[in-house]
Amino acid sequence: MNIDALIAYVLQRLPELWLRTGEHLMLTGCSTLAAMFIGIPLGILIYQIKWLRGPIMGFIGILQTIPSLAMLVFLLALLKQIGAMPALIALTLYALLPIARNTLTGLEEVSAEIMEAAEGIGMHEYQQLMMVRIPLAAQVIAAGIRTAAVVGVGIATLSAFIGAGGLGQFINRGLALANTKLILLGAIPAAILALMVDFSIGAFEWALRPERKKDKKRSTKSFMRLPALMLPVALILVGIVTNFTKPDWISGLQASMDYGREVVRIGSKNFTEQLILGEIMAQLIEAKTDLIVQRRFNLGGTMICHGALINGEIDLYAEYTGTALTAILKHAVMTNPEKALHYVSKTYHRRFDLQWLKPFGFNNTYAITVRKADASQNNWNKISDLEKYANTLIAGFTAEFAERPDGYPGIRRIYRLHFGEVLDFDPSLMYEAIRNKKVDVICAFATDGRIAAYQLTPLKDDRKFFPPYYAAPVIREELLKAHPKLGDVLSRLGGRIDDAEMQHLNFEVDGKKRRIAEVVQEFLKSKEML
Amino acid sequence: MIKLTRVFKTFDGGRSYAVKDLSLNVDRGETLVLLGSSGCGKTTTLKMVNRLIEPTKGIIEVSGKNVLDYNAVSLRRQIGYVFQGIGLFPHMTIEQNVEIVPRLLGWSTRSRRERIEELLDLVGLPAGSFAQRFPDELSGGQQQRVGVARALAANPAYLLMDEPFGALDALTRETLQQELLTLKNQLEKTIVFVTHDLHEAMLLGDRIAILHDGGLEQIGTKEDILNRPATQFVKDLFSIKRPRAWM
Q1: What pLDDT does B77 receive?
Q2: Testing the interface with A: which of B47, B73, B74, B144 to mutate, by most A Cβ within 10 A?
Q3: Which of A363, B171, B187, B245 has the most crowded CB, counting CB atoms within 10 A?
Q4: Buried b (16+ CB within 10 A) or exposed e, A180-203
Q5: Which pLDDT does position B245 carry in this prediction?
């Protein structure tokens, strides 16, 4: 890409880049501040009460080891909401360790000689702490805050998984779409932000340090002190202001207040097909109803989408019958598609007040997939053909597939396939891995456009192991009652997208790197639905 | 007046003694030097006077009252203490270091300011050029002058000095010794001064108490000690055979 095209690309994305950077700053800044208010007193407390050190530092340490996505899912279940709040709490919990630990270390490291002087001249214990020990520990504490903030910038990229925005949104989208430009659009500003945050806290510290006679540039210091102090404050303010003046938030609010138009919030998981389905439903609703559509796409997986739906944080998203059956309802696999759909819609209605609308038509089941060349050379047609070869093959699975009962554990049981090695991949990287011969077998999605494009062959599920994965809109019944028309509009999509059509749409986005909105518009027009 | 009566301090649950059956008194306005090698119990004795360490047995009185009957904090504020490692607060300016005890005692800003100027003048560090500096901008000798000023700040009747010049180079040490000599004649404080330096003891002490292994060998003026050594240990101390560097 030449430099002009690059500049044009960034300029085109500039408004969103600005917004996401602001969100990112808000998340990092507020969580670091919160962690300071909790972590510093906590550090002082455990310094004073020795027996609390083990339990509290242990607990904070364990928090640190919880994978961020697991933490987000847990907080979602606890708080029953997506967005900034669970992200802020998760980030605060992660920031606690460096701050509390440095507070404790800083307090412990104050020289015994100085503390004896403090006691010897007649300071009360709390005076020794407040006037001597804490001020002398301040630098070490500040270093902890700095670590927490810089690490926080990195972790905050994961907030995008639960719809809290931030630069992670570009990264997630880029990963979902295998689009390096998008990934860099998030990753480079995040790295720059980390440096800025580090610098601003350093400047703050510098400005607080008292002026020394021996400092040659005294006047510079007095002159620069205020700006240096304001730097981190300014960063946080920019974040908060940007965060709460986001254009769609304001327009959404005004629209709903001024014109009595209501908002429907559509969610999606974080892979291409889900983004396309979300966009299809969004454009159709925008075209055929008065409702304002809010897109809360790219949520980090099934449990986050489902959690958001039952907590009323989103109103609908596209779910797959098989996923609903096994991952959400924890039910055994059902191979008959009609029975499966009947069961999930009945149970969803009874248990969650959620309604399944008509399926789109395609069956995005898992497909154990190999390279076409390998298949013809070894005469592989069905999954059971792999049994003899499995221990010499390397499998690349999504993390979800590796664990789900209707994934690898089931495959091992039903087909007795024990692969030589199993590697976990992000969905989009999995296809690159098999294409580049890093792995030999993957759990492709039947509708993925890259199956055809990358010369891959899905093997036949001869023991009928995989449950059907028919996708359909799942919607909150409350909303459906308020807007019956919504059901009619979405039902028009029923049976209109078959496997080939979905493969085609996926490839337009994944393979040809076209914009989703454009691909979807073209599709809806071709079906004469707009 | 400070008075110790049969004071013991044991460590390790009574197995080892830091101070063993020590009785002595320091008269008003007098400078008593506690002289001894390291581990003889002299610093422990000093710290027991302002309750940084509590005695295992025996009675310590300050102004005729058992130190255990004082509130420890208010006792310490009545006794100036000059520490071996100087112990200035590195995050405070010289001025803030000096005024710390008056501040703890709640003196007004104005009287504190006057006192700072007076004291810094007294120890030869004019407030104009030193008050706003930080300890690490001063030489070791200057820092200990500030240490002395801090100890004198609230005008205590007693001054405890724990090897205050031990860490300084020989030249600076001699200067400060001379200054202290002048100072003590000027101020009329009751001073307990701990040292391992025989020469320093002879120079500064009105009386000298020689400690060995936690016990008192002899107490008296330098003439007493030189002319009438009470024990073999004291006699050896001054014999020519012993190099002066012994202590």
Answers
A1: 94
A2: B73
A3: A363
A4: eebbbbbbebbeebbebbeebbbb
A5: 45
